[in-house]
């Protein structure tokens, strides 16, 4: 696994080609489990550190942080296949297979490769508890915490860009499309999903606000 992680960060294109050639679904599952455990434990530890400092320890919140992280990653893996296909239908329709057997095979490959798309998130996850842990209130501690937070944000943004690069290489190789199509297809699909969720959330908030106003 560590060899795969090193390859992803040094030669991402060659790493994706090798993973595709091997088609090791067991290793893919192990990689995804490893990622889920690290990210989940990071979330739980961060919540625990904040609650311990405030003196209002609530084990249910710590458990919820861990479980919701795992559930979110599992859902994201399922949505990944659908969003990639939707995006390519919008920008590269002729490259999406019409044969059901071939379509299922492409979906299986995306499902297998997804763990390597989210694997880089392990790095900011390992550092997040250091950012979340409360520090002193004097000027020195506040300054150091600010520097740490800025560094963490920059690192997270860099990792996000790197994940997009890996996603683009995955889609390009699985569907044999151009780099532009492999990038803009999924990005457009994710944007449409975000827009839909935002509109739905706004509608729910308006309905709740109206109900509360009527019952007040």
Structure write-up:
This protein is mostly helical and 216 residues long. It is built from eight helices and no strands. The model has no long low-confidence stretch (mean pLDDT 86).
Short recap of the structure:
By secondary structure, this protein is mostly helical.
Shape: globular
Structural class of the helix and strand makeup? mainly alpha
Low-confidence stretches: none
Number of strands: 0
Question: How are helices and strands ordered from N to C?
Answer: HHHHHHHH
Tally of separate helices: 8
Oligomer: single chain
Radius of gyration (Å): 21 Å
Largest beta-sheet details: none
Percentage of residues assigned to helices: over 70%
Report the mean per-residue pLDDT as an integer: 86
List the helices and strands and how they pair.
Layout: H1 2-10, H2 12-22, H3 25-54, H4 59-91, H5 100-118, H6 122-132, H7 139-175, H8 179-215
Helix pairs in contact: 1-2, 2-7, 3-4, 3-5, 3-6, 4-5, 4-8, 5-7, 6-7, 7-8
List keywords for this structure.
single chain, 216 residues, mainly alpha, 87% helix
